[in-house]
From TrEMBL:
EC number annotated for this UniProt entry: 4.4.1.14
GO BP term, example: ethylene biosynthetic process
Similarity comment: family membership: Belongs to the class-I pyridoxal-phosphate-dependent aminotransferase family.
Name the UniProt record assigns to this protein: 1-aminocyclopropane-1-carboxylate synthase
Every Aminotransferase class I/classII large domain range: 41-426
Listed CDD domains: AAT_like
Pfam family, one: Aminotran_1_2
PANTHER family: 1-AMINOCYCLOPROPANE-1-CARBOXYLATE SYNTHASE 9, BIFUNCTIONAL ASPARTATE AMINOTRANSFERASE AND GLUTAMATE/ASPARTATE-PREPHENATE AMINOTRANSFERASE-RELATED
Pathways involved: Alkene biosynthesis; ethylene biosynthesis via S-adenosyl-L-methionine; ethylene from S-adenosyl-L-methionine: step 1/2
Assigned keywords, A-Z: Ethylene biosynthesis, Fruit ripening, Lyase, Pyridoxal phosphate, S-adenosyl-L-methionine
SUPFAM superfamilies linked: PLP-dependent transferases
């Protein structure tokens, strides 16, 4: 331990969150219809498994792409040899065209401003490295993706200050919330370098309105700071309103049109992990108008390149416009069907969700199932879900939600049948809690074990890394 780096031994990575602990519990006892029908169903993983058949069908019709051939001739050597960190031009072109298509071709991207990375995880960290020094802060609206604590802070030493959003207005960002977060950071002697949003939101499953995006642009322009828009879920928008990219709104702003400084401070993060359901391929990107950022991020991309083999395969797939339009349409239709299924199922159990139009999850209101209006009670309920109901769901506290009782439930990483079983388990649980006030836990071994972890969890939930700076260093 003594010989390890401080970065490795500090705890700013957030891996002790209930979000990640839930995954670990699932791994120990995963549900399988035949082999483990009483196991835990994974509803804490934002994977999109709904349209693999379309991708596999394309692969079967285009065997050259995966077998490293062009017009029937092997290009193995070309792909196997050294690649520079700029990426394959054909792939970058195909990627920006796909990004444009998802935005209804209302935005034009320039492939020279695109930097490839090993997923959005790497893209977000790289941007943070380019924009913030250790101790500088980014403001993030809550609730936010739990992985950001690791991705944005751990290796860069940057800090996150929450922009507190709440259910009273559907968790929308307001001017007051932005100013409060800025003031809070200043009070803590942190230099604010930017705002990072996720649009569509993980975990809310909502798209940001023009009004919110305009508010954000005005805010970052007036404070002289950056705006990162993580648009990893942009292709998952399945009902109105349509997705609006920050670049689209920026282009519409006459007052900022010729303000190069502001334009250079707006950056997009994207990845194929959600829209195409390919997190294992590790394909992400940064899009920035700032040449310095593009140049630095390009150099940094050698820490997390996308393999040439993957780039070649996907450049072929994404240049097939017939495939991409069919895929985008069909995938969104399937996501909508899943959302309908889960909303209906939850409604039958008296549970409602935040109205949403995107993503691979619902933001579910279980405040009425808490024994008290506290985060302790939320973790108690989460514990029951994992060990008693057999569902790994993500408590709002793991997303730094400011109100106890909200949970994120993923619906696109399983079959219709498994989702039906999950919905039935919720129904039985709700029925049993309304008929008995004290519900015994099925597995006492797990209960006591999780109790031991509770102290850790609670500590993480309320922790901002700057509280720990001295000890972490
Ligand atoms: C908002 C957000 N950003 C980034 C990521 C990381 O994605 P990737 O697999 O592309 O690294 C996720 C994954 O869940 C996410 O939800």
């Amino acid at each position: 331990m003594k010989m390890l780096s401080k970065k490795v031994t500090c705890n700013t990575h957030g891996q002790d969150s209930s979000y990640f602990l839930g995954w670990q519990e699932y791994e120990k006892n995963p549900y399988d219809e035949i082999k483990n029908p009483n196991g835990i169903i994974q509803m804490g993983l934002a994977e999109n498994q709904l349209s693999f058949d379309l991708i596999e069908e394309w692969l079967a019709q285009n065997p050259d792409a995966a077998s490293m051939k062009r017009n029937g001739e092997s290009i193995f050597k070309e792909l196997a040899l050294f690649q520079d960190y700029h990426g394959l031009p054909a792939f970058k072109n195909a990627m920006i065209q796909f990004m444009e298509e998802i935005r209804g071709n209302r935005v034009n991207f320039d492939s020279n401003k695109l930097v490839l990375s090993a997923g959005s995880t790497s893209a977000n960290e790289t941007l943070m490295f380019c924009l913030a020094d250790p101790g500088d802060a980014f403001l993030l609206p809550t609730p936010y993706y739990p992985g950001f604590d690791r991705d944005l802070k751990w290796r860069t030493g940057a800090e996150i200050v929450p922009i507190q959003c709440n259910s009273s207005n559907g968790f929308k960002i307001t001017q007051v919330a932005l100013e409060d977060a800025y003031a809070q950071a200043t009070k803590l002697n942190l230099r604010v370098k930017g705002v990072l949003i996720t649009n569509p939101s993980n975990p809310l499953g909502t798209t940001m309105t023009h009004k919110e995006l305009n508010l954000l642009l005005s805010f970052i322009a007036s404070k002289n700071i950056h705006l990162i828009s993580d648009e990893i879920y942009s292709g998952t928008v399945f009902s109105s309103p349509n997705f609006t990219s920050i670049m689209e709104v920026l282009n519409e702003r006459n007052d900022l049109m010729n303000d190069k400084e502001v334009r250079n401070r707006v950056h997009i993060v994207y990845s194929l992990s959600k829209d195409l359901g390919l997190p294992g391929f590790r394909v992400g990107a940064i899009y920035s108008n700032d040449e310095m950022v593009v140049s630095a991020a390009t150099k940094m991309s050698s820490f997390g390149l996308v393999s040439s083999q993957t780039q070649y395969l996907l450049s072929e797939m994404l240049s097939d416009k017939k495939f991409t339009s069919k895929y985008i349409f069909e995938n969104q239709k399937r996501l909508k069907h899943r959302q309908d299924m889960i909303i209906q199922g939850l409604q039958n159990s008296g549970i409602s969700c935040l109205e949403s139009n995107a993503g691979l999850f619902c933001w579910v209101d279980m405040r009425h199932l808490l024994s008290s209006n506290t985060f302790e009670a939320e973790l108690e309920l989460w514990k029951k879900f994992v060990y008693q109901v057999g569902l790994n769901i993500s408590p709002g506290s793991s997303c730094h939600c400011s109100e106890p009782g909200w949970f994120r439930l993923c619906f696109a990483n399983m079959s219709d049948r498994t989702l039906d079983i999950a919905i039935n388990r919720i129904k039985s649980f709700v029925n049993s809690t309304t008929t008995s006030t004290t519900t015994p836990t099925k597995n006492h071994y797990h209960s006591s074990k999780i109790n031991n972890k509770r102290k850790l969890l609670t500590k993480w939930v309320f922790r901002l890394s700057f509280n720990n700076r001295e000890t972490d260093r």
